[in-house]
Amino acid sequence: ARVFSPRRQQYVGKLKFASLEASQGSKKLIVATEKNVVAALNSRSGEILWRHVDKGTPEGAIDAMLIHGQDAITVSNAGRILRSWETNIGGLNWEMSLDTGSFQVASLVGLQDAVKYVAVLKKAAISLHYLSNGHQKWVEHLPERQEIIFNESTQYQLLYSHGTGVIYVLGIVPQSHLNILTFSVEDGEITKQVIRIAAPWLKRLNGMCGVVGEAVLVCVDTDTHSLYVCSLETEQEMKQIPLQSLDLEFADGFQPRILATQPSVIGASRTQFFLQLSPSHFSLLQYKHGLLSHLRDFQQAALVSFATTGEKTVAAVLTCRSELKLGSSDGLHAGSTLEDSRKQESLTCSNQTYNINLYLVETGQRLLDTTITFNLEQSGAKPQQLYIQVFLKKDDSVGYRALVQTEDHMLMFLQQPGKVVWSREESLAEVVSLEMVDLPLTGAQAELEGEFGKKADGLLGMFLKRLSSQLILLQAWTAHLWKMFYDARKPRSQIKNEINIDNLARDEFNLQKMMVMVTASGKLFGIESSSGTILWKQYLRNVRPGSSFKLMVQRTTAHFPHPPQCTLLVKDKETKMSFLYVFNPIFGKRSQVAPPVLKRPILQTLLLPIIDQDYAKVLLLIDDEYKVTAFPATKNVLRQLEEIAHSIFFYLVDAEQGKLSGFRLKRDLTTEESWEVIIPTEVQRIVTVKGKRSNEHVHSQGRVMGDRSVLYKSLNPNLLAVVTESTDTHHERTFIGIYLIDGVTGRIIHSSVQKKAKGPVHIVHSENWVVYQYWNTKARRNEFTVLELYEGTEQYNATAFSSLDRPILPQVLQQSYIFPSAISAMEATITERGITSRHLLIGLPSGAILSLPKALLDPRRPEIPTEQSREENLIPYSPDVQIHAERFINYNQTISRMRGIYTAPSGLESTCLVVAYGLDIYQTRVYPSKQFDVLKDDYDYVLISSVLFGLVFATMITKRLAQVKLLNRAWR
């Protein structure tokens, strides 16, 4: 058997900025991402060389990244932090705090053929810093002139310098005029009078304008279908150039963009620039010596980029091999209702095959042998970003590699003629939903299951079936023996244990599972748990950012020959509309079963224990009109629903109104409100509603006390834990509320208020206990509170539970503990039968996962130990819960920015499978009660076998001697 080792995959997130070294032997590329990460990737393997993770809040957002030599300059926290990184090892060269102000743009500044400074433009000031140490050379406030007519002040948005000792700052009063300021690099003095140029058609500078050549500003105007140009140094007005003179025109409703390039900050910009006329139409233009010329037209372009090596600058153009069309794709889309609400035009490439070509910017001529062809048919996503690494070969020809980022956050590093050097699935940096599914049976196991799963065919038929099953098992066993013999002759390094989707099979103890992950970008993954191998992936198009997801397993692999089935509910954040996506979690293929079209927003989903004729659990969907939709909705299912409708209850939460409502299902599948709890929103708001896990098993109904009596647990499967937080944020008046409410009757079982406490609150609800963590504002520390519910020493009804028949409230025991750290995530271990001791898995901000025995958070821990408490093995009460390093389950493999922990049972009662996810994904196994059901590694098989053989041999001899003795006695 293979030895299991915990696995961690690290990610950086969706790229925001990227820089590729311009040399053939370069080994790294520097990236900054939307996850506030600065990192270096190995350009040959895609692995992370080094990574720095900033705060996950907007304070850590990276606003700009500049590369010069071996230094990477980043601006973060809305322009308040300026940092320099050493790109080889990721060390911090220096860090500077800047004055507050709305960040606009940053740029390197050169002087006398050397880059010495970095300039940072804010809304009201510009500052210049030394590149070597970050010290501020000078700072100048920008003149604010309020325009009476437009009631708007000047918005400074552009910065330009090209090694001449001056910095140009461009500001705009929208639909009025343009201001050009000229600062001296040496002392920050304004060297010229402010140039004011009328531009009543100009709304903004970013995207609409660019600087080309020797400080010439080029802007685009959609109303007049013209380009406007002016020199930043000399001219006082803008010169209009109609695009009709070049036989070009803008697409209707499209905002054109200008893309210019400046290969070096100590030199002028290129006179060539791209003008985007429509989503798929780019033109390469040149403005030189006062003349605008059209170099080349790109009608089917998806992305364009400039790149420079030495003295050569090239333009890279990514095009679709077939025709690019406007409109929605034919791929996996978000259902008709959601699709109708989205009439945005988007580019689609029919065969998902793309070309990248290089062109000389001076002439627009295509360079021969520079085509890269790649296909995105497997993911179905569109390219979103293009970064080019250009280098000169030995024969002075141009070679290049390309980094492509798609809309599903996948990174592809390509080299000629189209080889994918490596790819990274960066959408896994934001997992939002996760389930573990059992792997399918092997062919032999499935054959055996099929034999016992079918109805009897008569004595002869069953005998023949058994015979064929045994022959198949014998064949499988022989093949297994042959493989073991064949592998034993090979060196260990040559034995391949590759896992692919074709040889997936459940192991003996069901330790390997399929992890089905849903990411925020709308991409689904099937990952084999023991190796971390991505076996399949599926991208759902037209899922907008911010959508919420709920993943449900309707049918497992236990019902051979029916395939397993998962259903994903996707809810749009803006329109509130939802759609269902049904798929096979083992192979990732879309199911043939057609889900219902959801025409109303869905408020609640229920996975019922009843199944249809194909063993799929029934999913109930409740919309905003409280109407019920069943999936699947066969006659058999509807009949079963009518029979058990009286026992189906559900709840709805309206956090804005502070209302919890309980409903019951009628026989005609309509709903009726049965209870309502109002939380006054002017005082407190609902933060979390937590129920119990449906797959949880409770082994012991009670606890044996020291006097040998039994304290029975209150095991209410319908119990809801509702957490509220005060709307008043003052540290003296803030509080946390906890309500335990029966989801069937609406009865409040218990309520308590934790004064001078605030969130974020992390809560675990399991069996008969609730553990929640909060921040104590008075003592300024993190605390745990544990609640346990007991019926007493007599059980009310031991055979069946009903929320409608519970006259006596349970006893609630409560205790609090001090925890020395904040918490990122919290979950409880779970096993197949619930025999194993429970542990709390606590994710810390440091990235460690602490496995804390639930016995330490026991409200029955006595302050003064007694004989009975010692008999129960109760630990004496101590308010401090210590963090011991030996309780960390991930050792030095920390998880950055942990958001959740998922636990699942395995086939071994002692083993719980754990997946922690955040910016990284970590998978391991924990053994809360040690491996009591597994033989140890040092188990002495030889000794035990020898003893057994000896006992058998001694028994045979003793038996023979006894027979001889009896015979001799009979002859006397």
TrEMBL record:
Component of the ER membrane protein complex (EMC). GO terms for cellular component: EMC complex. Keywords: Disulfide bond, Endoplasmic reticulum, Glycoprotein, Membrane, Signal, Transmembrane, Transmembrane helix. It is a single-pass type I membrane protein. Belongs to the EMC1 family. Residues 766-971 form the ER membrane protein complex subunit 1 C-terminal domain. One of its GO terms (biological process) is protein folding in endoplasmic reticulum. This is ER membrane protein complex subunit 1. It comes from Cepphus grylle. InterPro entries: Beta-prop_EMC1_1st, EMC1, EMC1_C, Quinoprotein_ADH-like_sf, WD40/YVTN_repeat-like_dom_sf. The keyword S-adenosyl-L-methionine does not apply. It is found in: Endoplasmic reticulum membrane. Pfam families: Beta-prop_EMC1_N (PF25293), EMC1_C (PF07774). It comes from the Eukaryota. Residues 8-426 form the EMC1 first beta-propeller domain.
